[in-house]
Design goal:
mainly alpha; single chain; about 260 residues; 13 helices
Length: about 260
Amino acid sequence: IARVAVDAGHFEEAADHALAAIALFDGLGLEIDAADAAAALSMAYIAMKHNGAALDASESRWTRIEGMPGADNALLRLGIALSSANQARGEYGEIPRYAERMLLIAEASRDARSVVLALLAIGSRYSKIGAPLTSIAVTEGAVRISRENGLWNELARALNNLSTVYISRDLEVAFELGREGMEAARRSGVVMQVDYTTFNHLLVLWTAGRLADLAAHLADAVETVVDEGIRLCLSTVEAWLADATGRQLPELPDAG
């Protein structure tokens, strides 16, 4: 239930369900199941931008179940959460510990989705530490596997990541990748992915100077985006657009 709630954008509800599951499984002595629930809790925390709490929820669980028989699925989910939280905090050196273990488990079990998620974590790290060509190569592999297996959410993430790298290299390529990523996100039905691909597309339009298209897409985004962090970023884009077109900025809401 917690994972479904995260995908639907109900992050606090997801956290509540995950906490209840952890308490239940811990009480029954089911350590692997409790770790699996902790991974779901961490993903809810990440969605709410509580990345430190996400690490606190999952790091000790990873250490406790690593090497246990039957723990592979839980380790995969914990690895996704720990890689994502470390990336969000800029702790790129921590990502290989989890992503490479994920990759080995996923390859052995022929779990295409987890292979893709491990590749995305590794590719994102390379992008951030200054190896964009390697990042592109790894992420293109994630795109191919996602397409071959009908993994729409993962395909959206991979295309969005590629588009981000290409913004500074080839705007037309970035635009096409972003457009395809938005379509994949819509097909996935995952609210966060729709928000992320939408915002990235706005950045491509701004960078390309396509202000009329930007205005139209921005108006739609203001009505549909759920993620609080991205909604804040939309205000920045609104300010850029107003400044570029000579329009007056809207008044800020009363903080009181």
